[in-house]
Amino acid sequence: MIALKTTDIRNDFKKISNLVRTGEKILVSRPHNENLVILSEKEYNELEKTRRNNEHLAKIERSIEQLSQGHTVVKTIEELEDMAK
């Protein structure tokens, strides 16, 4: 990861963009520790996919816990069909 100031980004945006495109991450230093990170869309999408997968895994773990505690609902096929109407 490369750390730069905002002025560096402004002055060399094309060069910085090419670095990001090839996989480099850029930390943009800002006042009061309000820093930013620039990364490629591909890397952003991968992070989002990981975040969504983690959310789904957490839901599955909660469901397994509920099942092990006996928090279940039993329905017959007829009841499920009635619910679908």
Describe, in short, the structure shown.
The chain has 85 residues and is an alpha+beta fold. 60% of the residues lie in helices and 13% in strands.
Commentary on this structure:
The protein has four helices and three strands; from the N terminus they run βααββαα. A three-stranded mixed beta sheet has the order 1-2-3. The longest helix is centred in the middle third of the chain and has 28 residues, at 41-68. A hairpin with a 6-residue loop joins strand 2 (26-29) and strand 3 (36-38). The protein is of the alpha+beta class and 85 residues long. 60% of the residues lie in helices and 13% in strands.
Number of strands: 3
Helical fraction equals 55-70%
Q: What structural class is derived from the secondary structure elements?
A: alpha+beta
Gap from first CA to last CA? 56 Å
**Would you list the SSEs in sequence order as H and E?**
EHHEEHH
CA gyration radius, whole angstroms: 24 Å
Arithmetic mean of pLDDT: 95
